[in-house]
Every structure is written in structure tokens, then in C-alpha cells.
Amino acid sequence: MLVTKMNDLYGRDLITTQDWSVEEIEKALDLAFEMKANRYDHPMNSSLDRRTFFMFFYNPSVRTRQSFEAAATELGGHAQFLEPKSMRLKTSKSAGETIEDAAQVMSRYAVGVGIRILETALEYYGQGDEILRQYAANSSVPILSMAHDKFHPFQGLADVMGYRQHAGKNLKGKKIVQVWGKGALVRSWCSIQESIMINSRLGMDVTLAYPPGYDLDPEVIKSCEANAEASDSTFEIVHDLEEGYKDADIVYSRNWMTSNFYDDMGKHGVDAAKKMEIEKAAKHDDWIANSEWMSKTNDAFFTHCGPVDRNAEVTDEVCDGPKSIVYDVAEARLHVQKAVMALTMGKK
Ligand code: CP
Q: What pTM value is reported for the model?
């Protein structure tokens, strides 16, 4: 068993994988595979011995909270759950403690802080990323994104771990179609944006497929184009399902919101803005990963970051079929988080 010895990631934040070098990403993934293979007996399993990791959730979660809490336990430490309502923080609407002060105080208690902050807790796109970077600038311990408005680094890492588990370590030249799916959950951009960035960075041929009106952050698209050029792979955007699914090795379906969501939320409130998104999404009836679309692929694996909106983003038949890797990807969240926590905040 290879035990990763260098620890040059110690003290590093992880707000998006794009902030880490490819070598650093590979190091975390290699360790995640080692930790999966030797789950309860890995030499780095006491990395958080008697140490606390804060998990600060502005928004709900199944996978992220449970997998981070389990990861801290398996590393010998403790994950403490925090919510903004328990912390009297200053906001644009209320007096309270500044992020600068809270970050410095939290650094005195814990060895790392994870933060989840999504659209409905924010006033504009990009504010979540600004808040995480403000915590990072004022904290002396690593700040980890547990999903924010722009990025979801641990989901991106877990996605890659899942592909490698099934398609092999070398993903170069594999076509992944990351395809918008209809649905009623009005999803953030964070998972899809993180995923297209890390996939293009690691040399996969990425096809992003969506109906007109669902453009993502242009800065993220520029990064994907640059990543593809640097890794000698391809990145393309299509609005046609046939073209998207054709010859794909991996299909990743996912709903995401239009860029009007923030404006609508400001003007009409969260519930009305969600209703407007659901009405728009319902017009794109064909945008579901079903067996007919999967038959156009190169016998592709099917993946989804979860939670799955069944029979909207994907049919039960595909999601539960022999090529589905959705639960392996969900499990991979635990292993990549253990690896990153051990490397960034574990005892040396
Ligand atoms: N994929 C993901 O982050 O799931 P949760 O929202 O359940 O944490």
C-alpha cells in the first residue's frame, strides 16, 4: 500500500479544485483510493485525533453533512454542526459579529471549517464565493467549500473518483456529456460548474448540453476552454440532445437554474422564483436521461451528483440500471473528504 508521505497541502483552503494544481488534485485522489481500499486501517486514520472540524451549513444537505461527519469520525476527530441562526452573524439586514471576527475565533477552536452557502441564502450570484474567500482571508485554519453558489469541489473530486473506479484511471479522450435535465428541484450551478472544470482539467472531452436559456457563468466556461487547451482535450457546448449523447462514455445529467433566478428571487421572493424556474423547465420534456438517449452512447456509465430528481432528470430504469454509478459517486464523497482533511488539516 502506498502511503502518501509529502504533506505540502497542509493549511490549504479548498474553495474550488481550480485553485489547486493538477498534481495536488491527483495527490488527493490517490490518497482517497488508498483510504477506500483500507477504510478502517489506513495509517492516516488518526489524522484528526481529538481535533474538531466545524461544518457551517446555511442550506440543507444529505450527502455533504453525513459524509463530512463520518469522515471526521473515521479520522479520529469530531465534526461539529453549526447553523447561522445559532451564531448571531452580521448581515446586510441585521447587526451582529463580522466574518473577520467569527473566522478568527473559529480558528482558535477547530482545525478546519467547512461552509455550505447556496442561492437562497444569498443576494446575488458570486456572493457565496466572496463569503468563503473572506473566511479564508481571516482564518488561520483551512476553509473548505461544502458547496457554494459557484463551486462544489468535493463533488467534483468524488465524480472523478467514481469515473476512475469504473472507467480506469486514465480518463484522457473519454467523452463525458454533462446534460441539463428537467426537474422541480431548481438546482444550483455549483456541482455542474465544478464538474466541467475538473473534467476538462484532467483531459476528458467534455460536451456541455443544454436548452437555450440555461447558460452558465461565462468565466467558468472560459476556464473550461483554457483547461481543455492545456490538457489537449476538447470542450464544447451544444443545444441538441442527439449531438450531446452521441458516442459518450459517461452521461452526467443534472438540472440547473437559469441566470434569472437571482433577479426573480429579489423581485418576487424565493418560492415564486422557484415556481417560475419549474414552469420554464417543464417546457423541455425531452431533456431526461432515458434508455433511448443512453442507446446513442458508447454504452456509457450514468452518473449524477445527487439528490436525484427521479423521472425528471433521469428515468428509474437508467438510474437503477447496470451502468449507473450514482451510489459509488456518493460513497466517493466520504473518501475524497477524508483525504483532503488528512492532507490539509491532519496532524503531521
Ligand atoms: N451532492 C450533494 O452535495 O448532496 P447534498 O446536497 O445532499 O449534500
A: 0.96
pLDDT, tens digit, for every residue of 167-223?
Answer: 999 999 999 999 999 999 999 999 999 999 999 999 999 999 999 999 999 999 999
How wide is the angle at C-alpha 279 spanned by C-alphas 273 and 281, nearest 5°? Answer: 100
Q: Which atom of ligand 1 is nearest to the CA of 305?
A: 1
Give the model confidence (pLDDT) of 269-298 as tens digits.
999 999 999 999 999 999 999 999 999 999
Task: Please give the distance, rounded to the nearest whole angstrom, from the Cα atom of residue 60 to the centre of ligand 1.
Answer: 8
Peptide bond into 211 cis (omega under 30): no
**Residue to mutate, 57, 63, 190, ligand 1, most ligand atoms under 8 Å from C-beta:** 63
Domains of the chain: 7-151+331-345 (3.40.50.1370), 162-330 (3.40.50.1370)
- Taking the centre of ligand 1 as the mean of its atom positions, its distance from the CA of residue 61, in whole angstroms, is 5
DSSP symbol at 51: -
- The closest-lying atom of ligand 1 relative to the alpha carbon of residue 65 is 8
CB distance 304 to ligand 1 below 6 Å: no
Q: Cα–Cα distance between 316 and 312 in angstroms, integer?
A: 9
**Number of Cβ atoms within 10 Å of the Cβ of 231:** 18
- The number of beta carbons lying within 10 Å of the beta carbon of residue 7 is 16
- Ligand 1 geometric centre to CA of 155 (Å): 8
CB atoms inside a 10 Å sphere around CB 315: 19
CA distance 161 to 301: 13
Is residue 229 helix, strand or coil? Answer: helix
Q: Is residue 303 in contact with ligand 1, taking CB distance under 6 Å?
A: no
Helix axis angle, 127-138 to 99-109, nearest 10°: 50
